[in-house]
Amino acid sequence: MPSSTPRATSSATSTKPATHAVQEPRVSSQPERPKTSSSLVGQKSITSSRLQTATTCSAPILNCETIENKIRKNIQHSWRGILKACQEKDVSKLGEIPVSVFLDIAEKFNLDLSEGEINQITTKYDLKKNGRFAYYDFLQSCILLLKPQESSLLQRVIIQKPQKPMSPGPQTTLFFSTMLRIQPQILHCWRPMKRTFKSYDESRTGLLHVADFRQVLHEYSIDLTEEELFNILEYYDKTLSSKISYNDFLRAFIQ
């Protein structure tokens, strides 16, 4: 009897692991669904972390847009003076000046920017990361509307979008300078000018030959030099079709 008891005990002990060994696949096969749900939770956490990262990255851009909208209101009547002051400091005519010089100009023209807003603006327009401020890019972003927007004030001014999205050409310094120079005149007469453009566009394609485009501008006392016209065409007629979308052209000024 004493010898049989250990055997029973050992057999009992030996059967238990065997039972567990048999049951383990069943137990492991059942939690597969929870594992799947936990993996989904993991994916959600990864997705949420990516969204948080994307939000963090996009925040400065949104803030800059808010700042630029604020600046746009402040410099409607003084941007020409700002441009002239920047050009005087830009001896090499590269379209950029030291950040410290721009800050002095911004203070002179009362742009009313906080320290945080100044840091974001100067960081965004230090394009070459060399401590210099690209004032042409800054002014064209605040004064002109060359980047397409999905919803904006454009819809209120009823400037039709082209059937085919435009593929713009290079934005040269002279192009910015020309567009900024004629901006006040365009704002003054863009409605009748739009009607005149349409009267020349008999086929209603939204496109005008270069000669007709220049003639319409001339009728509204906007005369371009050959170099200015070339830079405008280089941007709006990248494919060298000798035609220009007058709606795209007007949209750059109407915000």
From TrEMBL:
Residue spans of biased composition, Low complexity class: 1-19
Organism domain of life: Eukaryota
Gene3D superfamilies in UniProt: EF-hand
Biased composition (Polar residues): 26-47
Protein name: EFCB6 protein
Cellular component terms (Gene Ontology): nucleoplasm
Gene Ontology molecular function: calcium ion binding
Domain EF-hand: 193-253
Region entry Disordered, spans: 1-47
Signal sequence interval, chain numbering: none
